[in-house]
Batch of 2 targets.
Target 1
Amino acid sequence: MMYKSTRGYSAEYSFSDAVLTGIAPDGGLFVPVKFPRFDSLEFAELCGMDYCSLAIEIFSKFVTDFTKAELERCVRNAYAGGSFPQDPAPVVSLSSSLNVLELWHGPTSAFKDMALQILPEFLSVAIKKSEQHRKVAILTATSGDTGKAALAGFQDAEDVKLLVFYPENGVSEMQKRQMVTQEGRNLSVIAVRGNFDDTQTGVKNIFTDAAFAETLKERGYTLSSANSINIGRLLPQIVYYFYAYLSLVGKRRISAGSKINFVVPTGNFGNILACYYAEKMGLPVNRIICATNDNNVVSDFMATGVYNSKRPFIQTISPAMDILVSSNLERLLYEASGNDAQSVAADQEDLKASGVYSVDKKTINNINQSFWSSYASQEECRATIKNVYQEFHYLIDPHTAVGIDVYDKYVISTGDTAPSVAVSTASPFKFNKTVAEAIFGPEAISGRNEFEILEDLSAKTGQTIPAPLRDLDRKPILHNKVCEVSGMKAAVDAFLQ
Ligand SMILES: *Cc1c(COP(=O)(O)O)cnc(C)c1O
């Protein structure tokens, strides 16, 4: 399988080269030149497979420049090496129609582990295959979840160094503690005196500094990023959509071949795009329900065909979805426009120049055949956390709550009660303050820090705190560097000496 740019750049890339390069030279994103399809016979053979076997089957269609042995090693190191429980992605049934796919059983208790545990494995193999053996230096600006998931994924990875920048006062106590206690010989974590935008801009400036890139090249380093535009982060997310479907078949909640809905809390559009890719590969999907929070650019786009990022940024209780420019949407536009790279490139130019673009009728109609979208306010999100707990004695985090609220809206609006899977993207204990307040009221959190609330939430609900979040406040702090935005480049320089 080869990969090409969404914006029409002529060369095709192997999987290894696409993963190492990250972004195409014309600024486009790498997409598979065509989608492999499982016919019904092949699909039947997938039933009953464990997560690793299923992942190997799916990757063997996409990662064709790896040997079977290399692929198997990548998959087993990622999902069977002790970072995940035996079932990495359990499906919990709440009602006859609503099921929850829990994607937060990895080392950082958020769904980004599903991809960031295997990306370093892919990268290590790709480095060995590349013509000049190089080392890769990964820089990441994080508003919370990505940084920790990348640190856990790249810990002690061969030939890779990782530097995470986070805004000094822009992440939660838990998230900060998760990052600054991270062990690993090849890692560094630095707080930046600024907000997330400053931090991200600082990283982008380093990426586009050609002279600095040359200096690093002389030292044997190529700069790369671990964010969700890398195709090596996207493909692993396809696996769990098949896995969830097959789990429901295995439990006889659906019959093989019947269509189901998926509900996905959406930010940068990576997770939900993988669901769309799964559908293109033959997974029986009725509707992909796209749930956004108050930053509802994507819902508005799906309703109107106009993408308008020129609006106030709203800081919400589902921070991982607080995004106004949803990068992976570009890959959907490419497919839905019938691979019209020229129009995709023009749209992205418009976005850059004016913050707005619009697509033609045919494209938006195509999108609406697969997708349905709406958003949840913060108040609705809090009410959903409380209702789901009261009705099912089940705890959900604020991102998952956005999904379930929008699912309820979907059922009311369409009357469709077909079996559905809501994708759960973070452990409720990771956002314990919001969850405890939503269920037990403001007095449950007043005067308490997040570590106290964590214990309290567990005691009140009888649910176990995930191991990665337990005892976090007692772990030694290993990273305490702080820098100004203007000092970020010097920090990278020092780290890569
Ligand atoms: C990153 C993240 C999301 C958004 O996923 P995208 O792939 O960016 O759409 C949703 N929920 C949580 C908890 C996340 O960490």
Target 2
Amino acid sequence: MKFTSLIAYASLISAASASAVPKVSDSSTNSSTVIGDATILNFLLIFENLENALYTGALGSFTQDDFINDGLPTWSRGRFEQISAHEQAIVASLSDAVGSNAIQACNYSLPYTSPSSFTELAEFISGVSVAAHLGVSQYNTNSETATIAASVLSTKARHAAWIAAPVNKHNAWSGAFDTPLSFNVAYTLAAQYMSGCPSTNPSLPFTAYPSLTIANATAGQSAAVSAASNVTIEGQYIAFFSGLSTTFVQVQEGQVVIPNDSMGISYAVLTSSKSLADDSTIMAGVAAVQVDFNSYGLRE
Ligand SMILES: *[C@@H]1O[C@H](CO)[C@@H](O)[C@H](O)[C@H]1NC(C)=O
Ligand SMILES: *[C@@H]1O[C@H](CO)[C@@H](O)[C@H](O)[C@H]1NC(C)=O
Ligand SMILES: *[C@@H]1O[C@H](CO)[C@@H](O)[C@H](O)[C@H]1NC(C)=O
Ligand SMILES: *[C@@H]1O[C@H](CO)[C@@H](O)[C@H](O)[C@H]1NC(C)=O
Ligand SMILES: *[C@@H]1O[C@H](CO)[C@@H](O)[C@H](O)[C@H]1NC(C)=O
């Protein structure tokens, strides 16, 4: 991506009214109702920096022999080198576009111990990044901006699908529609891996929710719900974000019935409403619910 294009990208992602999304403020404008361009690009850098650290770290730790000895295909590590180079290019371009207010990478605590646990984690994080990019796509009010943003998003979706399917032997997609996540939902998923950020970074208006866990989810069956200790779960609702729809299920006796049409990944939050899951109602999150399905569409 060209630097000049990203300048356009940065300057053209302009203020948007935020009726259906969390309000964010931009330090450059200090308006709680304006989503500023620098804030949007810094939001995307949260995910790009995380991915950059993931690929750089794993490739620095594991050789081609390590990959092969762990049962991964001979061609996989070279492709991860390509993905890593893409991430470096995207981080550099977005950072240049934001300028001196660009956030710098944090320290990360990434739970992989082997090449294969790295590729599992990469599948999850690359999916979260796609969902985050998709979530901010509504702010692209200009056609040039929208094209550039879509260009990055589609490359990242290819990365995610390649990691999921030929490498990890899971499903490459979930359904006809990918899932867009709102700022704080996406941020919560990234923040769990961040173990300290430079104090010089500008403060961004995103917060992580208290934790939520849904154990051993199987479509159509009850699963145990647990949350941070000061969050009351009983009688509240789990909202499952899947594609462009949200399914609400009440928590009863500490359990939630996983929607029986679940396929692929859903992102779940605890909400006080049976029909709304946004910053005004979300109490805890985000639990990822993965229901694998095979080439015949059968759940595994
Ligand atoms: C931003 O605006 C709010 C409301 O007017 C004000 O209280 C706050 O001090 C401002 N912050 C900065 C950094 O200017
Ligand atoms: C990141 O980790 C390094 C090495 O442990 C440490 O020196 C540094 O202070 C950490 N930075 C932050 C912002 O936590
Ligand atoms: C997970 O759920 C399935 C189906 O209900 C059950 O057979 C299995 O024992 C459960 N596993 C754990 C670890 O609870
Ligand atoms: C729950 O605990 C967390 C951290 O311990 C705290 O930040 C949060 O404000 C608490 N929430 C409530 C509703 O008390
Ligand atoms: C899925 O759940 C809905 C609502 O509980 C129910 O009406 C439907 O019959 C279920 N479908 C299957 C295939 O179990």
